[in-house]
Amino acid sequence: MGSAEPMDAVATGEVDRAGPRRILGIAVPTLGVLVAEPLYLLFDLAVVGRLGALALAGLAVGAVILGSVSTQLTFLSYGTTARAARRHGAGDRAGAVEEGVQASWVGVAIGLVIVAVIQLFAVPLCSVLAGGGEIADEALSWVRIALFGVPLILLSMAGNGWMRGVQDVRRPLTYVVAGLALSAVLCPVLVYGLLGAPRMELAGSAVANLVGQSVSGVLFAYALLRERVSLRPRIAVMRAQLVLGRDLIVRSLSFQICFVSAAAVAARFGAASVAAHQLVLQLWNFLALTLDSLAIAAQTLVGAALGAGNAHGAKMIARRVTIWSEIFALFLAAAFAAGVTAIPLLFTDDPQVLDRAHVIWWFFVAMIPVAGAVFALDGVLLGAGDAAFLRSATLVAALTGFLPLIWLSLIFDWGVAGIWSGLVVFMLLRLIAVLARAKSGRWARVGADIPSGAA
C-alpha cells in the first residue's frame, strides 16, 4: 500500500509528458530503427543486381526465406515492449529488463532451432521457391550463410522490445545503424572483391549481412549485461511471453496469407497489373512503418501508465496519440494525392504500369487516414497486452473482407481495383473493431503484469 503514491506520481508524470515532444521523442528514433533495415536491403539489392539477373533472383528467393522467419517472430519486440512497459510504469526497471532477458533466451533458442531445421531442408525449400535450376543453387549458397544470423536477429528484436519498454529508444537506433552500416561497407567489398578481399559474389552479401547482425546482436546483449540483472532463464515468464506471442503470430500469419493471395491474383491479371500492385504496395508498406513509429510510442506510454495503475492516464494517452497519428496521416494523404502523377513516374515510365497504378492510387490515398487511427489504436491495444482481441479482429476482417474480395476479383475479372477494394474493406473493418474496443475501455486493465484475460 505504501507504494501507491509513488506509482501515481510516475503515472501522472508519464501523462503530463506525453505531449507532441514526448511522443515524437519516442517515435522518431523508433522510425529510424524500423526503416533502417528496408533501406539497407534496397542497397543490398543494388549491389547484387550488378552481378546479373541470376544473382538477383537468388537473393530474392533467399530473402523471402529469411524474411518470412523474422516476420512471424515480431512478438519478441512488440510483446516484450508491452510487458516491459508495464513493469517500467510500476517503477520496476529490473523487472522490465528481466522481460528482455527472458525474451532474449526465447529468441536465441527459437533461432537455433530455425537454423538447424532450415539448414536440414534448405535444398528442397530453395528448389520449391525457385522452381529448381540455377536460381535455386544461387539462393542456397546465400541461405546457408545468412541463416546463422537468425538467432542474432531475434536477439536484436528482444533488445528493441525491452528497451522501448523502458523508453530508451536512442541506443537501439545506434545499435541497429552500427550493424547495418558495417554491412553496407562490407557488402560491395566482399561481393566484388574490392580492397584486396576475395570476390565472393552473392555469398559476400550473405557474409556482410551476418557480420552486421552479429554486431547489433552483441551490442544488445552487452546492454543487458550492463543492467546487472539475473540472466537465469525463468520458464514461467517465457511461457507468458509465448502466450502473448501466439496471438501475435496468428495475427501476422493472417496478414501474410492476405498479401500473398493479393500478389497471386494480381499476377493473373498480367505483368502490368502485378507491377503496379507491387509498386503501390511498397509505398503502403513504407507508410505503415512510418505510422507504426507513432503506434510504438502509444504502446510504450500506455503500457507504462497501466503498469503505474493509471487507467485514466492510459486513456488520455490513447486519445492524444491517436489524434496526432490521424493529423500526420491526413498530411500524408494530401501529399500523395497531390503526387498522383509525379510519384509513380519516380519508379517506372511504362505506360501500362502507370495506368494500373493510377487506378490503385485513389484506393491507396483513401486508406491513409483510416490507417492513421487503426495503427495508433493497434499500438494502444498492444501496449495494454490486448493481443487476443487484435488477433480475433484481424482474422475476422481478413476472412470476411480482404480474402473474399481478392478471389472474387479473379472470378469476376475486377482487376487490381477489386483487390484494393478488398484492402480498403479490410482496413475499415479493423477501424470499426479497434474504435469499438477503445471506446469500451475494457482494455485498460492496470497492474505491473498483463492480465491473463488480455492475452
TrEMBL record:
Cell compartment(s), UniProt: Cell membrane
Classification via Pfam families: MatE
Membrane-crossing residue ranges in chain numbering: 23-43, 55-79, 100-122, 142-163, 175-195, 207-225, 248-271, 283-306, 327-347, 359-381, 393-412, 418-436
Cellular component per GO, a single term: plasma membrane
Keywords from the named record: Cell membrane, Membrane, Transmembrane, Transmembrane helix, Transport
GO MF annotation list: antiporter activity; xenobiotic transmembrane transporter activity
Main subcellular localisation: membrane
Superkingdom of the source species: Bacteria
Membrane association type: Multi-pass membrane protein
InterPro entries reported in the protein's UniProt record: DinF-like (IPR044644), MATE_fam (IPR002528), MdtK-like (IPR048279)
Keyword Hydrolase on entry: no
NCBIfam families tied to this protein: matE (TIGR00797)
Family: Belongs to the multi antimicrobial extrusion (MATE) (TC 2.A.66.1) family.
UniProt protein name: Putative MATE family efflux protein
Organism of origin: Nocardia alba
Lineage, uppermost ranks: Bacteria, Bacillati, Actinomycetota, Actinomycetes, Mycobacteriales
